[in-house]
User: Fold these one by one.
Assistant:
Number 1:
Amino acid sequence: MVSLKNNKFLILGAGNMGISFIKALLQNKIAASKIFVLEKRISPELKKIKLKKKIKILKEVGKLPKNFRPNIVLLAVKPNQLDSAVNNELINIISDSLIISIIAGKKIRELKKITRNKNNTVRAMTNTPVSLGMGTSIIYFDKGIKKQYKNLAREFLALVGQVNEAKNESAIDSFTAIYGSGPAYIYLMIESLIKISSKAGHKNSENMVIQTFLGSLLLLMSGNSSAKTLRENVTSKGGTTQAALSILNSHNGLPKLLSRAINKAKKRSIELSSN
């Protein structure tokens, strides 16, 4: 296992994702003195972290310490902010750093061109549960990147959850559609069930629906049975569950609808990468 503790970190962009990584670093005993953040807009949450943990949050590259050279740089700005965020002054500072980008739609080729870091740039994508250290991430390594940097990148992403490696860069588009957007699909189903439950007159509908999802996931995570087996166990022949599933699976309904939705999300991801 690679140790992150002896490294210096630069977080470029401190929105929700950036803040999640800052918290993860601090929770894993990385000294606040080794964490530097470049962010022009200081959110209340970021200000709270700064006051409590004393990390360095700067609005300009020129405010970084003289001769500062980070070992790991996280690119977490919005796609339309990258060009202006990575100026010549910053390019000189990060020329030898490991650069990890979690920016949607920015391919390795473009990242290397903007940062002028051709040897140590990797592309990753993750999802919102990183805020709890329960994210699902994918990482793509271009040809030529050294093993030590691969291990360092994997260890960094592992701070916020599970890490998977993409065999090719195009896999990031399907990952984005399934796992990056995945939490939204689950939340939509939860929302829908809460509305239906409330309409049926049940009190505490939100808590009951959340508990149903949580209990079902924990049962699945126990590893004793697959999702298919657990579904079949609930579905008695001629019973209420079978009646409901006959609607959801009518003409391959739900699976087909999910497939269409994911394909559209994937298409949009490809479009963003092509712009």
Note: The longest strand covers residues 135-141.
Number 2:
Amino acid sequence: MTRKPFSTPDVNRKAKLEAFDRLLTVMDELRENCPWDKKQTWETLRHLTIEETYELSDAILENQAIEVKKELGDLMLHNVFYARIAQEKQQFDVADVLNSICDKLIERHPHVYGDVVANDEKTVKENWEKIKLRTGNTSVLEGVPKSLPALVKAIRIQDKARGVGFDWEKKEQVWQKVEEEMREFQAEFNGADEKPIDHQKAMAEFGDLLFSLVNYARFIQIDPEEALERTNKKFIKRFQFLERESAKDGKKLGEMSLAEMDSYWERAKSM
């Protein structure tokens, strides 16, 4: 095995190892002495881990380094917590977890730890998916968690398919697909007329339209999940401005006309 040396020595490695050892010690002490920590299981921690992950995502989108540090610490604690519970059941411990991920990374980076040549990101991803198929996966889509939110799942599905070469060649082709799906959706749900619609068909066509838009976003290197979340945050900020400023003027939202609310909205957009 060819192992490439670090370009820069890690002068803080000793401090990092000591900090991780400290976390393991604190985890052991809490598990043995704290009534709440003693009661926790994988199942009771699961929803808390999901919440912490979203909090990390929020901190990243807000570019708040201090908050990112805090949320990474929370998630690090959860990782150690899960491993400690498994250790008690004699299933595995944190050393097994860390060695397992190291082994996987080394195996799936033969361009770093072997003689394979990969000079660009595309080749690295293709090699990654091929290696996974050789090591037991029967489908390239097996690694996509079933419980992922639909938008994120669409991104991962398309990334996985691209990794084995199943992808459009040009972005123009992808946009043509978007336009095709839009026409099909309009055929099922035309808001200009009053005819009843088949909601099942309309929903299916709308799903196809969303999937094609996600595909186009991926093709032009836009993360649709991040794009939508940034728009969510922008809407919240503007709507809360509307609420705050109209209240200062002695107005109540439920009693305002749409034109009045629009005037505050336009002011919010200029902020």
Note: DSSP finds twelve helices and no strands in the chain.
Number 3:
Amino acid sequence: MAHYLQEAYAVSLRRSIHITNVSPSMWYYKKRDRGDQLLRMRMKEIAAIRVRYGFERILIMLRREGFKDNHKRVYRVYREEGLNLRSKRPRRSRNGAHRLERVDAPAINRVWSMDFLQDALLNGQRFRILAIVDNYSKKCLSLLVGKSLRGEDVRNELSQDCKEESCFPERIQCDNGSEFISKEVDRWAYANNVTLDFSRPGTPTDNPYVESFNGKFRDECLSMNWFMDLEDAREKIEEYRIDYNTVRPHSSIFDLPPEEFIYLHQINPEFSS
């Protein structure tokens, strides 16, 4: 309207603004291009490398790299670039059974969990993976790969993990697999005063920490790679384990990777309380 008065009646800008009761700041305001090209490019790079990362984890990665953009702006760019993850199937509306006597891990390396996964090489040959995680710090202690893993392999891997961590756990949660109930693992646990806490048959919710890890591991590693042979599988899986422990943010430990969480906890034992 003010622009029309200027052209039609040749009045000054000041008078036309006064007549139309328009604020001068509104008249002079010009939208500034904030230049989000760098943000868009980096978000697409992160999403391309870490395919299963959603908005929250991409935002954490950007914060680590020094991006100060507001989370609303980051989410807008995230939507505009079509980086949204496809929603997973809704869970069944049934409460999982919980064992009342099982309590959460009170500290680092007090309670571990272990389980087996299975995948295939490019030629279709199946192989197995033994996953061992610390329930408190979420650290993946080992991912042992082999065509067939027996009780003695589990025993040897546990011994190696205990040697690297310089301690033995008080309790290890696992299912009723033949390798875990073997005499080799039982003797090792008895000799080192470790309690083997077996899940109830057909109840994976009794061992939630390693089951949660298995889902992330399959989504972010097994489903994203072709394995040419067993050695190639070992290399790629070990690379994922290192990345999982040193880079990947975990919401349950303040969006930190496990190694950083452990370091801060050692400096200040009350850090996580």
Note: Residues 230-246 form the longest helix (17 residues).
Number 4:
Amino acid sequence: MAVRGKVLIVEDDRAICSFMRRVLEANGYESIIVGTGREALSMLTSHCPDVVILDLGLPDMDGMDVLTQLRAWSLMPVVVVSARTDEREKVRALDAGADDYITKPFGTSELLARLRTAIRHTRTTSGNASIAKENRFIARGLVIDYDKYRVYIDGRDAGLTQNEFKLVALLGRYAGRVLTYDYLIREIWGPNKAYDNQILRVNMANIRRKIEKNPAEPEYIFTEVGVGYRMEIDECCGRAPQFFSCRGHEAGFKTIDNFMRLSRLVSRLTEI
């Protein structure tokens, strides 16, 4: 069974942890379990899971503090699981950036459905209608299958590693936009690797060897010198790219002239 994603379970109740691990692994998810907020913050930056299941009642700190610190650098999906039934607590968690809220006790089907919804939410917020509808991104011979966690090139599995898939999946989600180096590094490897362009360079070189016919003349993933990477889409041909920074702010460049000015400005920077 293909691994659907890595789930970080932040929960101090061993019985609940054991239950969730069995359910997740039986349904194709890899799970990591921690019992404190400090452990969670460490794992978030070192392992960068695909989804977080977060209990609010942790022994060393409130789960809301974990959520707040995570949202300072990532849009990683978070499903809150808590015994707190007060409506104000739910609203507070959702306002702080939680993607969903489950009240204990809960069943297997509900847990899996909420996880799928949280993951799907990250797709629909990208503005890419085809991904939201079909869970796939298609650009000529390239197919990113978000359900199977696979990338296919001309019908064959490209054989990407987990982090390589995450990079391609993120670029596909925002196809046509330039994702800055810093944004990509933070989303895949966490804030502790910020500005470590070497790790991104190595992974991108491996990706291009696997999906491009000629890595020196890419068809799918393009480098915007000194800024970041962009996934090509057929619809955007002839349109100046948009930029997506690590802070989530977008700056649309409506004309080629504006883009060329930016390119000249950053041409002195080191290209990945």
Note: The longest helix spans residues 108-124.
